Each structure stands twice: as structure tokens, then as C-alpha cells.
Amino acid sequence: MSATLELTRALVDLASVTPDDAGCQPLLAQRLEPLGFKAEWFPFNDVSNVLFTHGDAHSEQQPSLWFLGHTDVVPPGPLEDWSSPPFNADIRHDVLFGRGTADMKGAVAAMVVAAETLVREHPDHRGQVGILLTSDEEGDAVDGVKRVAEVLQRRNDIPDYCLVGEPSNQKIMGDTIRIGRRGSTHARLTVHGIQGHSAFPDKLDNPVHRLAGFLSALTTMRWDRGDENFPPTNCQVTNFHAGTGAENVTPGHAEVWFNFRNSPASQTDAIKLRVEALLKDHGIEQYELAWRISGHPFRSKAGELRSTTIAAIRSELGVQPELNTGGGTSDGRFIAPLGAEVLEFGLLNKSIHKIDEHVALDDLEALTRVYHTIMTNILVTST
């Protein structure tokens, strides 16, 4: 059994459902600290965060390369639907099954094993290699990397390069690098009307009818055209609630939730103004509208991390990766504003959050090789 596979299985066997780390990070500390890694812990409420670092970075000649990951996983869902227990890693036909194998304990294991190998081979490597982990990525992401980034910014401890281990690939290993992410803006709208008997439409004001035209315009509007890296901003309705429970009574209010995945061409403040104007255009005046931003759009600058990652994928996997900003949000959104060059590259994402989540054993080894090559090229052979 390879080191990456063995570590992935050990991590998957720990039921670390957000925000419970369930011992994953202490397990990694037991491996890394004897090799000279410094462990710095950042506990916030029920969330465990840790930064493992080896070496120092003080100048352009001493770069810092951090890997970013999470040890928490989403709930497994009905246990009876799984072919094998989700927290008992099982190998079948050269595939490892279990919750978190792809998202993202397999990538965490790959970055740890790659870092261990680097330090054993080159104990005096230049600069700094780091691994930042949280147990609050799949949840609210309030007390995880977001809080750690605030600490790092206050003390001006910002990596030059940050590689996020989120499962980026679509069909084969190496086909996709995320060079940024769209923003995510949530809205909760409550429209007030007048409850009444459906037989007397002149005595009621049905908020569902008012919302019908608004929602049609909201979801078909062209917000922007995107650009070479970002698809156009998109709006999706995620929840709708109205009704009194009676067949012949119209509701007095209706609530709708909608979410924007926005490109840099449509920042949140501009979206808010357009939504408010749209409400006015459809005669909706009695309403309450609450907003929550879970991430702003960001795009990584093209630098040494990008060129090194592309070269590593080509040399180790023989694949030319596509550069895009697809997918949901990731913790990279908290590191990018600090000024680091941020990329995302991990395993395949086709089974993440699903029943029987899995990863091919060969993919675990491939990812470990790519991570090790990136570390070596930046911290050993680069000039």
C-alpha cells in the first residue's frame, strides 16, 4: 500500500463531518512534526485550523509555497444507500470508496506525503513549504480559513503561492486548473400582499402573482457577458415558500431565495441596485430583502505558480490543462485578497458529495507526483 493511499484511508475512517475534525489534524501533526514541521493551531469556536510549515521565507530568493485544504466532509446521507460504510474506506477494483476520498482527504494525503518526501530529499530546501488545513470548509466557513486569513494579514504573514487541493478535474487527471472562482451572493426576499378568498380577487393582493413577472425577468436577465475566464453571471432561484394551507385562500406574503454566481463584471453592489430597480419595475413596493455574500469573484494573477503547475501536469500526466473559474466557492477566496497567487488543482470532482464517493488509486499517486514536482521546482530547482 502506498503512503498516500494508506494516509487517505486513515483520514476517511475518521468521521469528520463539519465542523468536527475528528482527529484528522492531530494525526497529521504526529507525522509532520518529527520531520521538523512547525504546527501552529488556530482554534475558533468549534473549528480546528492548523498551519504546518517547514523552512523560512524572507525574500524573493526564499519563496513561500503553501497548500490549502480541509479535513471536514459533508454528511454521508442515508447509510443504507452506500455500497460500503462511508467512514470505513474500502478498496474495490482499484478504486477507493468513502466519504471525503475525493473532497478532499485524498488531496490532503497527497500534499502531506509530497511535503514529507520533499523534506526528506531536500531538508535544506530554500524558502518555505506550508500546509494550511481547516475543519470548516463544507459548512458556514466562518471560523475556518476566513478567520485564519485575518490573522495572517494582521501579522503580514502571507504566502507567495497558494495551491488549493479542491477536486478541480472533470474527466481525467490534469484536465482542469482553477485560476479563480466566481462570486456567490445570496438574497432572501419577502413580498407582502393581502391575504384573501380566491373567489374575490378585488379584495386581495396576491404576492405570488406579483413575484411571477419579477422572477421571470430576474432569471432571464443578461447581467454581463463574462470574459475569457469567467462565464456570464447567473441567477438561480433556490427556494420559494407561500400559502396558507387552504386551497381557496391566497397568501399574505411570499418568500423567495435566489443566488447569484457572479463574474467580476457584476460586483455585488451593482447586482443589488439592479434587483431593487427590477422590483420597482414590477410594482413590488412592500418587501424585505436581505443579502449575504459568501464570496467575491477573484482571478489569480499569472505567475510562477501557474507556469510551474502547468509544467508539472504536462511532465507527470502528459495532459495540457484547461484554465477556468468554474465550480462553486472555495477557501481560496480568503487567501487571494491577501495578494498571494492562488490556484486550485486536485482530484476528479464527479463523485464529490454523492453516495459512494470515490477516487481511483492511480489518481492518488498521480496527484502526489504533481504536488511533489511543483514543490521541487519552486523550492529546490527554481532560480
How would you describe this protein?
By secondary structure, the chain is an alpha+beta fold. Helices cover 31% and strands 25% of the residues. The chain has helices at 3-12, 24-32, 101-121, 145-154, 207-220, 268-281, 304-317, 332-335, 361-381, and strands at residues 38-41, 49-55, 64-70, 90-92, 95-97, 128-134, 161-164, 176-178, 180-181, 183-192, 196-197, 234-242, 249-250, 253-262, 287-295, 298-299, 322-324, 341-344, 358-360. Strands 1-2-6-3-7-18 form a six-stranded mixed β-sheet, with helices on one face. Strands 12-14-10-15 form a four-stranded antiparallel β-sheet, with helices on one face. A hairpin with a 7-residue loop joins strand 1 and strand 2 (49-55). Helix 1 crosses helix 3, helix 3 packs across helix 9 and helix 7 (304-317) packs across helix 9 (361-381). The longest helix has 21 residues, at 101-121. The two termini are 36 Å apart. The model has no long low-confidence stretch (mean pLDDT 95).
